């Protein structure tokens, strides 16, 4: 009795011969039968707020190397088209200049006929040369236009091949996402079941 009531008394108020007795905590006191109740194993107590690592697998396209090759071919075709268009533009500019020079040569021929017949032969020679340059430049322009059309057709073909693989990659990605979603749902269902079972086991040991 003294151990429970007089433990908190000042020394001058304690009975003669009294020695304080510290009582063990409630959880450490033996049971009436003399046995300490067992504690539940720590591994059986699972926090409801513990973080769970979701199953995950990074998407990888099965034909990624082929797709990269198709992309490279498409880029080459696109560059070839740009080069062909640039060459065509240069030839068209050259044709415009050649036609302007031919018009000037014709004007000089007409002028020589009126003012200096002795210069007609020379002026006509310049006109003939200018006309030949125009014809050659026109042929070059037509050749460049054909190359542009061929480059465009090549680019369309390469682009179609690339788009076919991109469509296949999109389908595989969708399938991967569906499988990941299904796996995640199964994972969380399993974790919820395990958490419930372990909580019940822990409570049964209290």
UniProtKB/TrEMBL annotation:
Keyword Membrane: yes
Assigned keywords, A-Z: Bacterial flagellum biogenesis, Bacterial flagellum protein export, Cell membrane, Cell projection, Chemotaxis, Cilium, Flagellum, Membrane, Protein transport, Transport
Membrane topology per record: Peripheral membrane protein
GO cellular component labels: bacterial-type flagellum; plasma membrane
Region ranges (Disordered): 1-42, 159-206
Cellular localization per UniProt: Cell membrane
Protein's recorded name: Flagellar FliJ protein
Protein encoded by which gene: fliJ
């Amino acid at each position: 009795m003294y151990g429970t009531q007089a433990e908190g008394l000042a020394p001058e108020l304690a009975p003669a011969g009294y020695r304080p007795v510290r009582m063990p905590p409630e959880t450490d006191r033996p049971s009436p039968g003399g046995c300490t109740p067992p504690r539940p194993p720590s591994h059986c107590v699972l926090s409801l707020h513990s973080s769970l690592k979701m199953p995950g697998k990074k998407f990888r396209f099965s034909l990624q190397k082929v797709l990269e090759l198709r992309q490279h071919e498409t880029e080459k075709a696109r560059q070839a088209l740009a080069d062909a268009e640039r060459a065509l533009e240069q030839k068209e500019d050259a044709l415009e200049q050649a036609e302007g020079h031919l018009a000037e040569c014709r004007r000089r021929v007409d002028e020589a006929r009126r003012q200096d017949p002795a210069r007609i032969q020379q002026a006509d020679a310049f006109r003939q040369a200018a006309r030949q340059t125009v014809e050659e430049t026109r042929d070059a322009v037509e050749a460049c236009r054909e190359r542009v059309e061929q480059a465009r057709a090549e680019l369309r073909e390469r682009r179609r091949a690339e788009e076919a693989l991109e469509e296949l990659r999109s389908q595989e990605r969708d399938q991967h996402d569906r499988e990941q979603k299904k796996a995640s749902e199964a994972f969380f269902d399993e974790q919820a079941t395990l958490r419930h079972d372990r909580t019940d086991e822990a409570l049964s040991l209290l």
